[in-house]
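TICKET: design request
STATUS: open
ATTACHED STRUCTURE:
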């Protein structure tokens, strides 16, 4: 009995030694399939998509200046304003494009007679959109919460506001910007809201000095709200278009104002003006760097010697209102537009529609807009690269957004003719999904 047990133990020991030997041999040999390959590189998709024939004759198509990226699609929205005699002439639609391109489906947003002109993406995977409803001659500000299929979950009408034009999300609230008493002399309105509850309201009227750094007494006309963004740790910042009134023709300009988000009070503002009354400035977008400095894009238009002169500018401005650097590009702009995207390293993407030639339209020479230019500037305003794409007739570049795969997506409205003065010629939009260097093989 003892001998049998001893032999069994010896045999078991031999088997165990062989197993350990084989185990060591296999672990020391190179493996063709690592057990933990680590993170795989993200493939940046590139494609081009044209969406056409959206608006009928005599219908104005108004692009929402934003592109929303979700887990499985990109969202673009358009508002349509046709003749009052046309049935359902005022409406808004949501367009879904797949991550690999292709129009998934357009969705009509089920708010009657609504022009929704701005949108943001909330943490609950809902879109928050603002605009106005139009019924005969009566307009009213409206906010809408919808999913990516355009299904409305909440909507609120805001009394004593004719139109909402911008929306900005903060931690526990949203800020709406709009107008009231448009026919009697426009007032600007800022609303702090939570759902359908108004937390505070601030109104700005013509005639006030919109420059807290200036001691000059100037009469200012408020023309347009261009953008509203979060000012981290401080509140919100707004970008507005102004006209300085004087003894001669008004001088065009813009201002940045910093607003306390808890009370709606004005903390600081600074205005800039053109150096001539024959130059018109159109502010487009406001961004804020991590260091607190501002990025402002604006367009400049003048009519000199019977020729349209278009230029696009980007300024980097510090908290004292002083310019750190500026960048100028020849190009066409129309509002509404957000033509910049700020990246994590402080660099900025800039997109603009440009022209290559002029033609005589009977009233002077008009620019033929048929190029899309995209540039990247580093933190100090130096150009890192530039790409351009030949297109058909363009109306405007209205949005550029960096994407989760490391690339970018750009959208521009398109026209059936090179006629910058005729808004009803705008019939669709083009979308370019580009890589990190602004390239899209086969897109031209």
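STATUS: resolved
RESOLUTION: sequence designed for all positions
ATTACHED SEQUENCE:
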């Amino acid at each position: 009995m003892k001998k049998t047990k001893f032999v069994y133990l010896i045999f078991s020991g031999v088997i165990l030694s062989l197993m350990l030997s084989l185990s060591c041999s296999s672990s020391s040999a190179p493996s063709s399939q690592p057990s933990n390959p680590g993170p795989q590189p993200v493939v940046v998709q590139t494609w081009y998509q044209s969406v056409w024939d959206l608006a009928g004759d005599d219908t104005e198509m108004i692009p929402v200046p934003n592109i929303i990226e979700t887990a499985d699609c990109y969202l673009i929205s358009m508002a349509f304003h046709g003749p009052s005699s046309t049935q359902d002439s005022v409406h808004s639609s949501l367009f879904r494009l797949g991550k690999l391109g292709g129009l998934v489906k357009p969705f009509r947003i089920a708010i009657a007679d609504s022009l929704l002109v701005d949108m943001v993406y909330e943490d609950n995977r809902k879109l928050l959109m603002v605009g106005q409803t139009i019924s005969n001659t009566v307009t009213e500000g409206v906010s809408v919460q919808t999913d990516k299929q355009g299904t409305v979950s909440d909507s609120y009408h805001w009394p004593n506001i004719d139109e909402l034009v911008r929306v900005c999300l903060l931690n526990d609230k949203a800020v709406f910007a709009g107008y009231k008493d448009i026919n009697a002399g426009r007032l600007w309105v800022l609303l702090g809201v939570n759902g359908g509850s108004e937390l505070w309201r601030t109104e700005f009227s013509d005639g006030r000095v919109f420059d807290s750094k200036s001691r000059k007494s100037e009469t200012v006309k408020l023309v347009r709200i261009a953008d509203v963004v979060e000012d981290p740790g401080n509140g919100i910042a707004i970008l507005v278009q102004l006209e300085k009134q004087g003894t001669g023709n008004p001088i065009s300009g813009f201002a940045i104002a910093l607003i306390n988000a808890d009370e709606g009070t004005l903390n600081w503002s600074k205005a800039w003006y053109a150096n001539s009354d024959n130059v018109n400035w159109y502010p487009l977008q406001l961004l804020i760097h991590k260091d607190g400095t501002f990025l402002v894009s604006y367009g400049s238009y003048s009519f000199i010697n019977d020729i349209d002169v278009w230029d696009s500018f980007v300024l980097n401005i510090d908290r004292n209102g002083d310019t750190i650097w500026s960048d100028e590009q020849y190009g066409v702009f129309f509002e509404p537009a957000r033509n910049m995207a700020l990246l994590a390293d402080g660099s900025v993407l800039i997109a603009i529609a440009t022209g290559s030639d002029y033609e005589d339209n009977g009233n002077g020479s008009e620019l033929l807009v048929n190029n899309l230019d995209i540039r990247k500037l580093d933190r100090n305003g130096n150009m890192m690269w530039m790409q351009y794409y030949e297109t058909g007739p363009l109306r405007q570049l209205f949005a550029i957004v960096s994407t989760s795969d490391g690339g970018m997506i750009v959208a521009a409205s398109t026209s059936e003719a090179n006629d910058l003065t005729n808004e009803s010629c705008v019939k669709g939009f083009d979308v370019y999904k580009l890589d990190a260097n602004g390239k899209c093989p086969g897109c031209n």
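CLOSING REMARK: The first strand starts at residue 47 and ends at 51. DSSP finds one helix and 29 strands in the chain.
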